[in-house]
Design a protein that fits this description.
Elements lengths: L2 E2 L10 H6 L14 H13 L3 H7 L2 H16 L8 H13 L1 H18 L10 H8 L5 E10 L6 E10 L4 E11 L5 E6 L2 H47 L5 H27 L8 H27 L2 H29 L1
Antiparallel strand pairs: 1-2, 2-3, 3-4, 4-5
């Protein structure tokens, strides 16, 4: 059975605590002295909106600490795409946010348990953190390998099997249970959350690289067409004169059938690409460049008919804007590549 954890169905890393409740939907031979019993009680507490019972079987403080530690380690690991200086800066920043962020996640979690709503408007940042970790879109697939640690009988493990669309495959989130002072099992931490975050980041990096590659190939190919058209433009002028109707007609054909059409084709090809969230700003910039270039072609074509100075001025302003935007896009793409 699959149960999707909706964006609104959890509080940051504590979504894992909510997710594990799904284990109650699977058949276990439940005894009160087993981790299976804790899983069942977590499920019951959520269905009955029983905050006290939930906290009885989930050590929220410990779970939050381990989850946040894994999140920080995952986004600042040596395997991340950040430079060493950037890694250190990010690490310092997210650690500075640690206390207020955990407090917010606790508030969102309690709100979710009691009402079914994490109250994201007041608990700002929770949904963003879930998006950054990919928890907003995971699907619960199974709970497996529930076993007590042979080396320490007061510790137990379970694999929460989730499917994350960005990964494209299942991932076992390793949960750790421990006995409290009353010998009751509690969910206390996530063992491999760093690995999970690293895989999410690597998957997103791969998607971003693929977008940059495809968009770069499209732009390079169309830039070649533009250069050829500009050479043709110069050739027409060298053999004719703008005062000549024939010359202006040839230029208009070039502008409409080659330049304008090429920008329209470029826009369609870029629009068809899969755009990862990290590339949204760059993609929107590419779309804007195409729109301005198409408008510039239309103005220039119009000027070849009306010979109005305002029309050519409008075309030249748009051409200048295209050049500025293209420089901005190149800088942004280079920064994203590196």
């Amino acid at each position: 059975m699959n149960k999707r954890i909706k964006t609104a169905a959890g509080a940051g890393l504590a979504a894992l605590a909510i997710a594990v409740a799904g284990g109650g939907y699977y058949y276990f031979h439940v005894h009160t002295n087993t981790p299976n019993h804790a899983i069942e009680k977590i499920e019951q507490s959520l269905h009955k909106h029983d905050t006290e019972k939930f906290h009885r079987f989930v050590d929220v403080d410990s779970l939050m600490d381990s989850g946040y530690n894994g999140f920080v380690a995952g986004i600042t690991s040596d395997n991340s795409t950040l430079t060493p200086d950037a890694r250190e800066a990010v690490k310092n920043f997210v650690q500075m946010l640690r206390a207020p962020m955990i407090l917010t996640m606790k508030s969102a979690l309690d709100s979710y348990i009691t009402t079914g709503d994490p109250n994201a408007k007041e608990n700002v940042g929770v949904l963003e953190l879930m998006e950054r970790t990919g928890l907003n879109d995971v699907e619960l697939r199974d709970v497996k390998n529930i076993e007590i640690n042979d080396a320490d009988r007061n510790e137990a493990f379970a694999d929460l099997i989730v499917f994350q669309p960005e990964l494209g495959h299942e991932f076992p989130i390793q949960l750790v249970f421990a006995r409290d002072k009353d010998k009751q099992w509690q969910l206390v931490r996530i063992k491999n959350f760093q690995d999970y975050v690293e895989q999410i980041n690597q998957a997103r990096r791969a998607q971003l690289d693929e977008y940059l590659k495809q968009a770069g190939e499209i732009n390079t190919r169309h830039e070649a067409t533009i250069r050829q058209a500009e050479q043709k433009y110069g050739s027409i002028l060298s053999l004719g004169n703008l005062a000549n109707d024939k010359t202006r007609a040839e230029l208009k054909t070039l502008v409409e059938d080659v330049l304008k059409k090429d920008w329209e084709d470029r826009k369609r090809e870029l629009f068809s690409l899969h755009v990862p969230k990290e590339a949204n700003d760059l993609h929107n910039l590419y779309m804007q460049i195409c729109d301005v270039a198409i408008a510039a072609s239309q103005d220039y074509s119009k000027w070849l008919d009306d010979k109005n100075s305002k029309t050519i001025k409008s075309a030249e302003e748009k051409i200048h804007q295209v050049q500025t935007l293209m420089n901005d896009a190149a800088t942004m793409a280079k920064r994203m590549t590196s």
